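ARCHIVE CARD
SHELF: 3
SLOT: left
DATA:
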Amino acid sequence: MIILPKQTFLKLNVEKKKRIENALLNEFAHYPLNKAQVARIIKDASISRGAFYKYFDDLTDAYQYLLHQELGHVHVNLENQDYAEPQLIIRQMRRFIDEAHTLPSYSLFQMHFKYNENLLRPFIPTTEMKTTTWMYFILSHETLRSLFLDPANQEFYFNRFKTAIAQIGKEQ
C-alpha cells in the first residue's frame, strides 16, 4: 500500500518538502502519535497551520507518510528474494542491525514500535504471499520490533532470527 500526502505537498520544491519532512521526523521521533502536535511541526517547518492541512489530512496522515518514506530506505522487498539463498536475508538483517543506530530515523522506529504500531496497526493482507515469504515477513518484522524495543539484547534476537531463517532454508 502506497501512502501519499495531498498533491499540494508532492508539488512543493525539494527544499521546502525536505524542511517539512525533517520537522515531521523531529516531532514523531520525540513524541508518540497521540501526543504529537501540529503546532510544533509548523513552527519547526516554518509553515502555517493552513499549509499543513493543505499537505496532509491530519497528524496520522503525516505520520503514515513519513513512516512509509523512512521504511522505504531500509525495507527489504521479500517478494523478490531468492529463497534458495536465505543467507542473503541474514546478511541484510545483520547490515541493518549494524547500521540502524546511525539512521536519522532510528528514534522514529523506536517510537513506532513502542507506541504507535498498536495505534495504527494496519491490516497487511498476507493471503497472496507464498508461505515462505510470509514466514520471512513475520520473522523479520518481529526481529526488528524486538531490536528496537530491547536494543541491549540485539545479538540474541539476531542469532534467533539467523537460526530460524537457516531452518526454513533447510526445509525448502
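SLOT: right
DATA:
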Amino acid sequence: MVAALVHAYEATELAVLLAALESGSPPSEEEWAAARALVAGLSKT
C-alpha cells in the first residue's frame, strides 16, 4: 500500500513537472495543490 502511494505521488509529481516543461513555465501553486489533492485522495482508498 505504501509503495503504491509513493509511486502515485512520484508519478503525479512527474506529470506536473512534465506539463510545466511543455508549457515553458514552472508549475503554479494551483498545479502543485491539485497534484497533492490527487495523492491525498488516493491515500484514502
